Amino acid sequence: MKILGIWGSPRRGGNSEILLDAFLEGAAQGGAAAEKVSLRELKISPCMEIYHCFKDGTCPIKDDMRELYDKLLEADVVALASPIFFYGVSAQAKAMIDRTQALWSRRYILKQDFPGGDRQGVLLCTGATKGRLLFVGARLVTKYFFDAVNVRYAVEILVRGVDEKGAILTQPEVLTTAANLGQRLARGEVLPPIKLDPLAV
Ligand SMILES: Cc1cc2nc3c(=O)[nH]c(=O)nc-3n(C[C@H](O)[C@H](O)[C@H](O)COP(=O)(O)O)c2cc1C
Fold first, then answer.
1. 3-state secondary structure string, the chain?
2. Distance separating alpha carbons of residues 13 and 190, to the nearest angstrom
3. Does 73 sit in the ligand 1 pocket, CB within 6 Å?
4. Domain at 2-186: CATH architecture
5. Geometric angle at alpha carbon 124, from 120 and 127, rounded to 5°
6. Interval 63-100: pLDDT, tens
7. pLDDT tens digits for 155-185?
8. How many other C-beta atoms are found inside a 10 Å radius of the C-beta of residue 4?
9. Alpha-carbon span 31 to 76, nearest angstrom
10. 114 within 8 A of 106, measured Cβ to Cβ
């Protein structure tokens, strides 16, 4: 079982990283090959709308996204961890997501064979405020990101009210939930379908 954790915050040791680490530690304990990709360490250009991908499903931009395409195709579980920035995911996460247009193109334009949709997706998000609609933007973006890479939006952990670096440590129950989730997915648990109403958060 390959579990890929994509971490999208620029802040090292911050809330989304602590949350993702708990999830991945659980996954490793459950026997998965758990890998963390730190977007802040990678050079990933925004999509330049070249539309080369509509011809053959590849992106001509030569940067670190090239390796991430393979990882996204090989993972059994894809977890995206991001802070909320201006009611959306971070710019690092969004740049990566926009570049998966090349994979979207393979699925929907070129109709190529694609790794199966039984693969599961996890959204891990942290935000400072307690507003009702805090996660709406991130959820919608992630829903269509997961769709582009043919991963089912299976589960989410959305953490409100954490702002300072490490504030999430005051919510140990959330970290336990994340670790348990990682462990369950590593053991091959198939989570029940969720009806995602992005406006209901
Ligand atoms: C540029 C920027 C924009 C932010 N926008 C929001 C926001 O719209 N809503 C919110 O609740 N928190 C916002 N925050 C706070 C972060 O979401 C919050 O501190 C989060 O826990 C940070 O996670 P991290 O430590 O993993 O980066 C923002 C922070 C920054 C730096």
1. CEEEEEECCCCCCCHHHHHHHHHHHHHHHCCCEEEEEEHHHCCCCCCCCCCCHHHHCCCCCCCCHHHHHHHHHHCCEEEEEEECECCECCHHHHHHHHHCHHHHHHHHCCCCCCCCCCCEEEEEEECCCCCCCCCHHHHHHHHHHHHHCCCEEEEEEEECCCCCCCHHHHCHHHHHHHHHHHHHHHCCCCCCCCCCCCCCC
2. 30
3. no
4. 3-Layer(aba) Sandwich (3.40)
5. 155
6. 999 999 999 999 999 999 999 999 999 999 999 999 99
7. 999 999 999 999 999 999 999 999 999 999 9
8. 25
9. 13
10. yes
The model's pTM is 0.97
- Domain limits of the chain? 2-186
Where is pLDDT greater, at 1 or 130? 1
**107 CB under 6 A from ligand 1?**
no
Return all residues near 85 (Cβ < 8 A) that are at least 6 apart.
91
Say if ligand 1 is within 6 A of residue 8 CB.
no
Q: Whose CA is nearest to atom 25 of ligand 1?
A: 14
